[in-house]
Amino acid sequence: MEEFIRKLLTNFVELTIFSLMLSLGLNLTIKQVTLLWRKPKILLSFLLAVDILVPIVALLIVLLLFDLPQSVKIGLILMAVCPGAPLTTRKIVQAKGNFPYTVSFQVTVSLLAVITVPLLLAILSSLFPPDVDILPRQVAEQVTFAQLLPISIGIAIREAWPQLADDMGKPLTKIANVMFIVLVIFVLVKSLDIVLGLSWLSVVAIILMTVLSLAIGHLLGGPREDTRTALAVFCATRNPGLALLIASLNFPQLGVLPTLVAYVLVGALASIPYLSWRKRIAAQRAEVEMEI
After folding, report:
1. pLDDT tens digit string along 87-100?
2. Domain 2-286 in this protein, CATH class
3. What's the whole-model pTM score?
4. Which residue has the higher pLDDT, 181 or 285?
């Protein structure tokens, strides 16, 4: 029965991520997607922060807090190498971040995950137990099906048949969001008791990773306040769906699900002061601009 539930969860996670990414592609044009591609300096700073510095922070936390349970260490590493949560865009918009940069980077980082996720896992494979064999090609295939393929299909439909994309985009987005909510509820119910039993050191590790990730994004976000906000949120908000999918397909025996859930919950709480501050900054700037 447990094996059946695990397979059912894995399949539902795959379908949910596929639907979210397809809806993302359907709602964006090539011009929107490639905005940051035409601004290589900004794009490189975003990639440096999200795909290199955040994993380094996670690695340092895992190495320095050596008393962390193995499942927590693996969970933090997984979250660190899996950027681009599907609902990051909404979170950044609420925090008054740079929307055009956000949608462009959301797609870019999701597409590049086909390379970055297996590469980072291979580099960090020494942190995994000896009986866990990380196969980069296999992980790349999994990310391709979950993210690269649906985004590409969505963008292709948008470019070739804009009206069809309009007709499909909104309903599919609603369906995908409902699927995501169902997934979150199921995962919470399944693992909440274990999450609540996590050690204080595990919670401290998650808070540290969240706060340091926000700081990295804010510092590398450049002079524009909305871009700083966008990059900070991108750095701190990882992709639990993709992390769960990779864990379920490659090493389900490690039991990282509670850590992934805890990261989402504790990370969200730890981000509240920063997000509130950024909203106040945006409101103050808007008042000044109105007076001018």
Report:
1. 788 888 787 888 89
2. mainly alpha
3. 0.91
4. 181
